Amino acid sequence: MKSAGTILLVLFLLSSLSRAKTILVGENELYKNPSEALSHSVSGDVIKISKGVYNVSELVIDKSITLEGEEGAVFDGNFFKEIITVTSDSVTVKNLTLRNTGTSFVTDVAAIRLENVSGCRLENNTVQNSFFALYLSSSKNCVVLSNRIEGNAVSESFSGNGIHLWKCNNITISNNEVSGQRDGIYLEFSTNSEITGNTSRGNLRYGLHFMFSEGNRYINNVFRNNGAGVAVMYTKRITMTGNRFEDNWGANSYGLLLKDIDNSLIYGNTFSRNTAAIYMEGTNRVNILNNIFENNGWALKILGNCYEDSVLYNNFLNNTFDVATNSPRNPNVFINNYWDKYKGYDLDNDRKGDVPYRPVSLFSLVVEKVPEAVVLTGSFLVDLLDAAEKVIPVFTPETLADNYPLMNRSGN
């Protein structure tokens, strides 16, 4: 038998649904501004915003409502403070253009902030000229879907992030476009989330940046032409598959930085035209499988404090340097990769080279010590140095070798 409390709750919910209504906001409607409509709404209501520009700041949504804009509905913050703050569960904000937030170095002012909520959706919004754009704090089970964020940041100190998660769990970030922010997508202390199908480009610092954020999955995203690519720090149990890391150039840039990462999978990604495709420091038991490394300065930079990592079935194509390291030892596994610089042979026709390939060149060690030496790339002197080192390895790590290099591209 159901308790009296349960029956009362069901009756209350049914009563709330029966009272739910659509409230129109616009120049020719009863309510002229969103704040007035919100004050007359109850949970379950839909507030529809007609085409027009509305001066909105510090709008606090504390009821489970849907706030929906018609095409051309714009909330302008007039560079004052935050535009929308959501403090109730099960709120949807969709189809709005939000622009011109305030700027603050005391609080993280955002176009839309979700604060300690569950089950909210931010969908198909456009955010322009914001400090932070979409900010989720201490929230769970929320969806950030098909939003377009267009920043105009000119310095890291005076800009915020596009999509920012702080202490969140089970967030879906899907099919968003982010540009012109400090970091495109940022996660800290955020777990068990999925980031899929997003494009993060032209951001000042990182296309994606996350720290202390375990158990997340990053699938089929594009990180292009950001200041320093993607940074993954102090994290474990990460899966990154089907992503593209492209055109991240600069003196200290890379496609993907892995720093103090454990027990993670980097699978089926494409790294193209980056200064360093993957830079690894303090990584342990990371599997780098079935990726494409093409036209990068360095494909892999692996420091000596990386242990038990596996580099398997990858394609290394037209990179200036395939692998660089600062250690004479190699506690990692390289096997069954395709290296376009490999000059070996396959007499037994098993599609694997009969002699090992050593991907660390002597010239790469020279460049690590004297970066200006990179201007000698492709010269006869460099070819001579590397040829001599391959015959009698002295300076390059003897154990860093692919003993079974593939004769054809992996997957072919």
Task: Please sum up the structure shown.
With 412 residues, the chain is mainly beta.
Could you explain how this protein is built, in words?
The protein is mainly beta. The protein has 2 domains: 20-227, Single-stranded right-handed beta-helix, Pectin lyase-like (Pectate Lyase C-like, 3 Solenoid), CATH 2.160.20; 228-360 and 397-412, no CATH class. 10% of the residues lie in helices and 37% in strands. The protein contains 4 helices and 38 strands. The strands form 2 sheets. It has a 25-stranded parallel β-sheet that branches. A 13-stranded parallel β-sheet has the order 3-6-9-12-15-18-21-24-27-29-32-35-38, with no helix packed on it. Strand 1 (22-25), helix 2 (34-39) and strand 2 form a beta-alpha-beta unit. The N and C termini lie far apart (64 Å).
Quickly list its features.
single chain; 4 helices; 13-stranded parallel sheet; elongated; Pectate Lyase C-like; 25-stranded parallel sheet; 412 residues; mainly beta; 37% strand
Strand-helix topology:
Elements (H helix, E strand, L loop, with lengths): L3 H16 L2 E4 L8 H6 L6 E4 L2 E4 L3 E3 L4 E4 L3 E4 L7 E3 L5 E3 L2 E3 L10 E6 L5 E3 L2 E3 L3 E6 L5 E3 L2 E3 L12 E4 L5 E3 L2 E3 L3 E6 L5 E3 L2 E3 L4 E6 L5 E3 L2 E3 L5 E7 L2 E3 L2 E3 L9 E12 L2 E3 L3 E6 L2 E6 L2 E3 L3 E5 L7 E3 L2 E3 L3 E5 L7 E3 L2 E2 L22 H8 L10 H12 L21
Parallel strand pairs: 1-2, 2-5, 3-6, 4-7, 5-8, 6-9, 7-10, 8-11, 9-12, 10-13, 11-14, 12-15, 13-16, 14-17, 15-18, 16-19, 17-20, 18-21, 19-22, 20-23, 21-24, 22-25, 23-26, 24-27, 25-28, 26-28, 27-29, 28-30, 28-31, 29-32, 30-33, 31-34, 32-35, 33-36, 34-37, 35-38
